[in-house]
TrEMBL record:
Protein's UniProt name: SDR family NAD(P)-dependent oxidoreductase
Enzyme class per UniProt: oxidoreductase
Disordered: annotated span: 282-308
Transmembrane regions listed in the UniProt entry: none
Keywords on record: Oxidoreductase
PANTHER family: DEHYDROGENASE/REDUCTASE SDR FAMILY MEMBER 7B, DEHYDROGENASE_REDUCTASE SDR FAMILY MEMBER 7B
Domain of life: Bacteria
Family per similarity comment: Belongs to the short-chain dehydrogenases/reductases (SDR) family.
Length: 326
């Protein structure tokens, strides 16, 4: 994990949802490096304990707290903020990051998948933001709120429709809150991230032709020319939140997609149609979803070599960023 000498946030209290692994863990690390007291929240107590151990090893003497919380439950989110306030003060900085990834063609999923995505990534962000705002408004230095959306929220990405829809809603939430909260001294940053090498392919859920879906997603998420180093991404996000930026789009590919869709949405949508035809087709029936850690590798020499090449960096990230099952 990268180092930083920026101490502009020193002494402030920060809370990160989805902070037990991947990007959330890395953002918590960047906040701790700036001298923040950090609370990381997630649903899994064991993952949180492992993440806390990593952060304390990286930042001896820094206060790192954990909170078992399901952001889909507003009462649980309310209790999380009350406990964080009583324990650490603030919070002065909150990053709504909790999310799930479902990879499958629309023929292999139903309304449940869309509902799960919206409950976690949109309503979870809503609960986090609404419960955070009273504390952020009381922050002596002006509260800061970050909401992690995605390039998937800037256009309809094939085989990621539930994810894209929920992230689009989260992005609109962040940009609207930025306008409404400004008068109270609270800044809100909407972050549209592209593919990052976080090891998330092991925790993502795959449907349809699971092995093939896992193959293309893990390769793309780990390919250096397509995806971004997750440490660098976390540093840029925390810097943007600290600097009170309204909007951050990460990775050149995400910025190009954002520009293309804004300038020529019809052409971009048709190009997405071409991409969709190149992706694996859904088999007969509707096989159950499985996490990437449980999916067999893709068959065939070419696809296996491509998957191994593209996911090599992602596999190392999975070890470093707490994505492996304990």
């Amino acid at each position: 994990m990268a180092q930083t000498t920026d101490k502009s946030l020193a002494g402030q209290s920060a809370l990160v949802t989805g902070g037990s692994r991947g990007l959330g863990l890395l953002m918590a690390d960047r906040l701790a490096a700036r001298g923040c007291t950090v609370t990381i929240a997630a649903r899994d107590a064991d993952e949180l304990a492992s993440a806390q151990k990593k952060l304390l090893h990286r930042h001896p003497g820094t206060a790192v707290h954990t909170s078992v919380c399901d952001v889909r439950d507003q009462e649980a989110v309310h209790a999380m903020f009350r406990t964080a306030h009583d324990t650490c003060g603030g919070p002065d900085i909150v990053i709504a990051n909790a999310g799930i990834i479902q990879v499958a063609p629309v023929e292999a999923i139903g309304a449940r998948e869309f509902r799960d995505a919206m409950e976690t990534m949109y309503m979870g962000a809503v609960h986090t933001c609404l419960e955070a705002l009273p504390y952020l408004k009381d922050s002596e230095r002006g509260g800061r709120l970050g909401v992690i959306a995605s390039v998937g929220g800037l256009m309809g990405v094939p085989h990621l429709l539930p994810y894209a829809g929920a992230k689009a809603a989260a992005g609109v939430l962040a940009e609207g809150l930025h306008a409404e909260a400004a008068a109270s001294g609270v800044s809100v940053t909407a972050v549209y991230s592209g593919l990052m090498r976080t090891g998330s392919h092991l925790q993502a859920e795959f449907g349809g032709a699971r092995s093939k879906e896992f193959g293309w997603f893990s390769a793309a998420a780990g390919a250096p020319l397509i995806s971004m180093n997750a440490q660098r991404a976390a540093e840029r996000i925390v810097k943007a939140v600290a600097g009170r930026r309204a909007r951050l789009v990460l990775t050149p590919l995400a910025r190009a997609a954002d520009l293309a869709h804004g300038v020529a949405p019809g052409v971009t949508t048709r190009l997405n149609g071409v991409v969709a035809r190149l992706l694996p087709q859904a088999p007969a029936g509707r096989p159950s979803r499985r996490r990437g850690a449980e999916v067999d590798p893709p068959e065939g020499a070419v696809s296996s070599r491509f998957q191994s090449w593209g996911s090599a960096l992602n596999e190392r990230a999975a070890d470093a960023y707490n994505q492996r099952d304990s």
